């Protein structure tokens, strides 16, 4: 199996996620972009597991999914609190702490 | 019929199941802390509200002490590996390394946790309730929030959350494979994100701190994970020992390996708060409840540096020449950012945050130091041992300093603006004196632990050939001394502005924290020998 297309796709997804975090302003969208980065890593892990013919990468992908789910729980709780307080999920509005 | 046809195939593909061996004794400190955290959740569910605070505090304190005692037993039971290769063994089927440095870091983290629990449990300063939000779900400035505060509600969930974070911190520097390290990183971080948003006062700042910490933390763990994927692609294994073998067997630079090292470094340097990944530190340290700031400034840094050292020394030790230049650049940037930006701060917690960034830079200086002692048994310190010692000194000074910040207050809570600290020496010479001592310690004045810590990392870096780094570090230490001493001058030689700051008498809990921090800073400065010996006897990481 030639892993290049899969690794290429995962690198593209990772880059999209990374750029999304940097340019988007809505906390929920930023969070979705982080999830995209995690899933890009999953794709890479599973591809490399196939290349090396062992299961480490596939097991790791499961761990990452669980961790991502836990992160959603914590992250959405924090974003919801901010949204209820400020009526906005824009990260530009949260600017009391600076300098 | 179908089951008969399938089952031989299944048993063939799965193979014989062998029971994994778990070294319960070696892992007991970690398991106790996880148990304490789970017990805390159960207490939260079943114990009546008025008893919860006492029960949760007791569970946390007793559990931490039990874990500490077990750490001592584990340390005494470590087997030498022979041939000067350190002590200890790889436990849990290769996932966790219980060796000298691990046990040393466990002990450090647990002692710092113990005194942080006291800070969390402090109730005198807010008039009978803890410094955490009465009802985190109630919006700031609403009827619900007022009701929660008149009823005297408090979130005792902070104790189990803290214990979960401690479990992650214990696992982080001990993890011997990359996926364990990633899981530990998340167990460490997720409760801390929540704790940051739970301040009773200045809740908007606190929630904003939680949001920023979470966003940037999740972003950096994305990098860390992609780094894991690349290194796994390179080595074909997650295990640090196997990675080390693959690295030493490679000639020339492999892009997968270099990319992986870079991305893993981003994730770890973010956690230690090194420039250019430090942007979250001042905001989060300022916004979070001060008890949480003290806890994470000390313990997270200890755990993250432990993991950084293990990953780079064990996993990527053979690629040292590839990553050393990167650490040089990051160390200089970090020290410069921390020292220079701290000069311009007007908030005491923010200034301490930049000071902690500067300390991360000093520790990184030691990180590129002496690889191994040339002649065993001499007084030379390897960089691992120097960093371990520095982490102890830094942890106690930091918790002590933040504990002092919690007692200097005005009508709106903690008086964190620097102008409110002017004339503190007249208001309370004792508190101002203790704080001045912590600042002198951080500046690295002789006879404080800060001096011996700096001396240890700088000598190890010098002997390792990183003398330009030491010169830069020494110059920037002088810059750092300026902003520490500026605060001392402010406290003693300026007149109070307006009504001036007041020092609220804390309960015995915070007093213990300040006393322990003070005693450790004096003791490690005057007689550093025992702890230095302990660090030196921790030996090397096992592979």
UniProtKB/TrEMBL annotation, chain A:
Q: Which InterPro entries match?
A: NADH_UbQ_OxRdtase_chain4L/K, NUOK/Mnh_C1-like
Q: What is its main location?
A: membrane
Give an example GO molecular function. Answer: NADH dehydrogenase (quinone) (non-electrogenic) activity
Q: Which GO terms describe its biological process?
A: ATP synthesis coupled electron transport
GO cellular-component term (any)? plasma membrane
User: Which Pfam families does its entry note?
Assistant: Oxidored_q2 (PF00420)
What class does this enzyme belong to in the EC scheme? translocase
What stretches pass through the bilayer? Answer: 6-23, 28-48, 60-83
The annotated topology with respect to the bilayer is: Multi-pass membrane protein
What EC number(s) does this enzyme carry? Answer: 7.1.1.-
Query: What subcellular locations does the record give?
Result: Cell membrane; Membrane
**What keywords appear on the UniProt entry?**
Cell membrane, Membrane, NAD, Oxidoreductase, Quinone, Translocase, Transmembrane, Transmembrane helix, Transport
- Give the catalytic activity: a quinone + NADH + 5 H(+)(in) = a quinol + NAD(+) + 4 H(+)(out)
Quaternary assembly: NDH-1 is composed of 14 different subunits. Subunits NuoA, H, J, K, L, M, N constitute the membrane sector of the complex.
Described function: NDH-1 shuttles electrons from NADH, via FMN and iron-sulfur (Fe-S) centers, to quinones in the respiratory chain. The immediate electron acceptor for the enzyme in this species is believed to be a menaquinone. Couples the redox reaction to proton translocation (for every two electrons transferred, four hydrogen ions are translocated across the cytoplasmic membrane), and thus conserves the redox energy in a proton gradient.
Q: Which family does it belong to?
A: Belongs to the complex I subunit 4L family.
The protein here is known as: NADH-quinone oxidoreductase subunit K
Name its species: Nocardioides iriomotensis
Q: What is the lineage of its organism?
A: Bacteria, Bacillati, Actinomycetota, Actinomycetes, Propionibacteriales
């Amino acid at each position: 199996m030639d892993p290049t297309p899969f690794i290429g796709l995962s690198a593209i997804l990772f880059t999209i996620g990374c750029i999304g975090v940097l340019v988007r302003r809505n906390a929920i969208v930023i969070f979705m972009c982080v999830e995209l980065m995690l899933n890009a890593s999953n794709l890479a892990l599973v591809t490399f597991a196939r290349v090396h013919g062992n299961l480490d990468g596939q097991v790791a992908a499961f761990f990452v999914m669980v961790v991502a789910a836990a992160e959603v729980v914590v992250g959405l709780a924090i974003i919801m609190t901010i949204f209820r307080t400020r009526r906005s999920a824009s990260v530009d509005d949260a600017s009391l702490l600076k300098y | 019929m179908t089951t008969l046809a399938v089952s031989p195939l299944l048993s063939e593909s799965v193979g014989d199941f062998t029971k994994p061996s778990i070294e319960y004794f070696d892992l007991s400190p970690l398991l106790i802390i996880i148990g304490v955290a789970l017990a805390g959740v159960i207490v939260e569910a079943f114990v009546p509200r008025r008893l919860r605070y006492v029960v949760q505090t007791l569970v946390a304190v007793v559990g931490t002490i039990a874990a500490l005692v077990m750490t001592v037993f584990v340390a005494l039971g470590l087997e030498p590996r022979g041939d000067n290769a350190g002590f200890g063994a790889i436990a849990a089927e290769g996932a966790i390394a219980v060796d000298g440095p691990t046990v040393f870091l466990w002990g450090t983290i647990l002692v710092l946790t113990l005194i942080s629990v006291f800070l969390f449990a402090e109730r005198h300063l807010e008039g009978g309730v803890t410094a955490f939000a009465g009802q985190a779900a109630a919006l700031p400035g609403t009827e619900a929030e007022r009701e929660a505060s008149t009823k005297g509600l408090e979130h005792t969930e902070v104790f189990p959350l803290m214990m979960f974070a401690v479990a992650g911190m214990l696992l982080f520097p001990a993890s011997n494979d990359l996926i364990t390290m990633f899981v530990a990183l998340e167990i460490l971080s997720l409760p801390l994100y929540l704790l940051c948003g739970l301040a009773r006062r200045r809740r908007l700042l606190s929630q904003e701190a939680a949001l920023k910490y979470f966003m940037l933390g999740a972003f950096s763990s994305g990098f860390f994970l992609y780094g894991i994927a690349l290194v796994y692609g390179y080595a074909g294994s997650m295990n640090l020992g196997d990675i080390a073998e693959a690295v030493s067997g490679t000639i020339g630079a492999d892009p997968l390996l270099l990319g992986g090292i870079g991305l893993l470094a981003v994730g770890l340097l973010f956690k230690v708060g090194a420039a250019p990944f430090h942007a979250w530190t001042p905001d989060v340290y300022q916004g979070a409840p001060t008890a949480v700031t003290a806890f994470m400034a000390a313990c997270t840094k200890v755990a993250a540096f432990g993991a950084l050292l293990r990953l780079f020394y064990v996993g990527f030790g053979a690629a040292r020449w590839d990553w050393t230049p990167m650490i040089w650049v990051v160390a200089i940037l970090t020290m410069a950012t921390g020292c220079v930006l701290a000069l311009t701060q007007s908030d005491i917690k923010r200034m301490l945050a930049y000071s902690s960034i500067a300390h991360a830079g000093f520790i990184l200086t030691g990180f590129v130091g002496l690889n191994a002692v040339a002649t065993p048994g001499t007084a030379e310190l390897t960089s691992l041992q120097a960093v371990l010692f520095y982490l102890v000194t830094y942890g106690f000074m930091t918790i002590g300093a933040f504990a002092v910040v919690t007692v200097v207050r005005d009508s709106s809570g903690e008086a964190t603006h620097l102008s409110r600290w002017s004339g503190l020496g007249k208001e309370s010479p004792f508190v101002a004196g203790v704080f001045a001592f912590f600042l002198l310690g951080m500046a690295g004045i002789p006879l404080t632990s800060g001096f011996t810590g700096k001396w240890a990392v700088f000598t190890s870096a010098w002997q390792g050939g990183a003398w330009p780094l030491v010169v830069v570090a020494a110059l920037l230490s002088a810059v750092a001394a300026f902003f520490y001493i500026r605060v001392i001058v402010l406290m003693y030689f300026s007149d109070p502005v307006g009504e001036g700051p007041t020092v609220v008498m804390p309960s015995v809990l915070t007093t213990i924290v300040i006393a322990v921090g003070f005693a450790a800073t004096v003791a490690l400065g005057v007689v550093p020998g025992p702890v230095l010996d302990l660090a030196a006897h921790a030996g090397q990481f096992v592979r």
